[in-house]
Specification:
The complex is a heterodimer of chains A (about 170) and B (about 270).
Chain A: H1 4-11, E1 24-31, E2 43-50, E3 55-62, H2 80-85, E4 98-99, E5 105-112, E6 124-133, E7 139-148, E8 153-159, E9 166-172
Parallel strand pairs in A: 3-4
Antiparallel strand pairs in A: 1-5, 1-9, 2-3, 2-6, 6-7, 8-9
Chain B: H1 2-22, E1 24-29, E2 33-34, E3 39-48, E4 57-58, E5 64-67, E6 77-81, E7 86-92, E8 96-113, E9 116-122, H2 124-128, E10 136-153, E11 166-170, E12 182-189, E13 192-193, E14 198-203, E15 215-218, E16 224-228, E17 233-248, E18 251-265
Parallel strand pairs in B: 2-10, 10-18
Antiparallel strand pairs in B: 1-3, 3-4, 3-7, 5-8, 6-7, 8-9, 8-10, 11-12, 12-13, 12-16, 14-15, 14-17, 17-18
Classes of the chains: A mainly beta (about 170), B mainly beta (about 270).
């Protein structure tokens, strides 16, 4: 029913434009401990957006991949911005992007941007975006703007107020 | 005795005609954006004073059509028509956008006979068979209305224009509405962009506000209206137009058309 070509496009490694090295992105995403009666691990999506806020590259999507009949996908729409910007046109799961939900704590990710759609993008303004949504809980979205250059070396961070803790971004050659 | 019964019937018809204008018609989905396979939603349809609380009349189930993304009709599961609302569930097997709508059209006449005001509601055929030209102080009205909601499972699909009556061409998909963004709809009358049509926007839960806070927009050149959402929530959108210069077998006809849509606006 879903378009398989979309999955292929999303996961294919693309050659970089004119030898530009996209760089290595490392991020730490903190899932805070919450004092609530009913706790479920949050669904989390991390992606890169263009200046026009269009999704350029999916970096990570953590959701309940263990439920029978893929029922965990029912709540992906609650990652509202990720869902509308790209999630809804993906064939799930996506190798190297989707995975199970994570426990409370700080989670490190390291991504070779040459293996993402960033490899064929021009330098300029971008956003690193992290969105979290928790069953019977809240939702929070953090955006870290960054200037992407030919030999990137940059850091950024943002602090969530409830559903997300500290989120850091580092892109280097 | 017979006359009395007739008068009573005429009064009832008039009441229905008026109440249909005074109350709000709506079709409300339990949710409008879905992910995952094999999703179900429930739907309520009613004519009520408050959004979205049934308190007056049901919209008849027989008048409600559900079309899937490729235009196929869907079965209404657990369907029931109550006194104050109709309800059913839908299984959304295919990805794309689904339309749930009720379309109604009717003609109404009022005239004087022996100093008494008479009213009738009927079909064009019924009115054509009457000797309209000889009737005193005759007023003829015709109304076509469509009440709709749209839900999307997975990626949205295009909402086709019917070219009939009053409707919206969705420049912004009705399942892609967020606060902090504006939505753009084009008002079409019989397929043509129409300027000067009044579009009323009311947020749901008006029962819990002292002022309903209706927003009014008027379609501009090219029929466009641009709506900014003050808050996240459910919104009732109604476009109404009077169509000038119509006649029915030589008798002036007051024609009107309306389009009513329920949407969900999500927080950014």
């Amino acid at each position: 029913m879903k378009d398989r070509t979309l999955k292929i496009l999303a996961t294919l490694s693309l050659p970089s434009v004119a030898g530009l090295h996209a760089g290595q992105l490392t991020t730490s995403i903190e899932i805070p401990r919450l004092d609530v009666a009913e706790y479920h691990r949050p669904y989390v999506a991390a992606w890169i957006e263009s200046e026009e806020r269009q999704l350029v590259a999916n970096l990570a999507v953590w959701y309940d991949t263990e439920m029978a009949d893929r029922e965990g996908e029912t709540w992906l729409k609650d990652l509202r911005q990720w869902w509308r910007k790209g999630g809804r046109s993906l064939e799930l799961p996506v190798d190297g992007v989707t995975g199970p939900t994570k426990p409370v704590g700080t989670h490190e990710l390291s991504i070779d941007l040459d293996q993402t759609a960033m490899a064929e993008r021009r330098t300029g303004e971008y956003y690193f975006v992290v969105e979290a949504s928790r069953e019977v809980g809240g939702r929070e979205l953090l955006r870290i703007p960054f200037q992407w250059t030919e030999n990137p070396s940059l850091q950024g961070e943002a602090n969530g107020e409830r559903e997300l803790g500290k989120v850091t971004l580092n892109i280097s050659e | 005795m017979k006359t009395l019964k007739k008068i009573a019937l005429a009064t009832t018809l008039a009441a229905i005609a008026t109440s249909a204008l005074a109350h709000r018609q709506w079709i409300l989905p339990s949710t409008s954006i879905l992910s995952g396979e094999d999703q179900w939603i429930s739907v309520e349809a009613a004519i009520s004073n408050n959004l979205y609380f049934p308190n007056h009349h049901a919209i008849a189930l027989d008048n409600i059509t559900v079309l899937g993304p490729s235009g196929q009709a869907l079965e209404k599961h657990s369907a029931a028509q109550g006194k104050i609302r109709s309800t059913f569930e839908l299984q959304l097997e295919a990805n794309g956008s689904y339309r749930i709508f009720s379309g109604r059209s009717g003609m109404f006449a009022s005239w004087e006979e022996d100093g008494e005001r008479k009213r009738k509601r009927g079909t064009a055929e019924e009115f054509a068979a009457m000797d309209l030209a000889s009737m005193d102080k005759l007023q003829l009205r015709e109304n076509a209305s469509r009440v709709e909601t749209i839900v999307t499972s997975g990626a949205p699909s295009e909402i086709a224009v019917s070219g009939k009556g009053l409707e919206f061409e969705f420049k912004t998909h009705p399942n892609d509405l967020f606060t902090g963004e504006s939505a753009s709809f084009r008002v079409l009358l019989n397929g043509k962009p129409t300027a000067g049509v009044e579009v009323t926007v009311v947020q749901g839960n008006d029962r819990f506000r002292n002022e309903a806070g209706d927003l009014t927009f008027v379609s501009g050149e090219d029929g466009l209206v641009e709506i900014e959402w003050p808050q996240a929530g459910r919104y009732w959108i109604n476009a109404s137009a009077n169509i000038a210069g119509a006649d029915f077998h030589g008798i002036p006809l007051k024609r009107s058309a309306s389009y009513t849509l329920t949407v969900e606006v999500l927080p950014d």
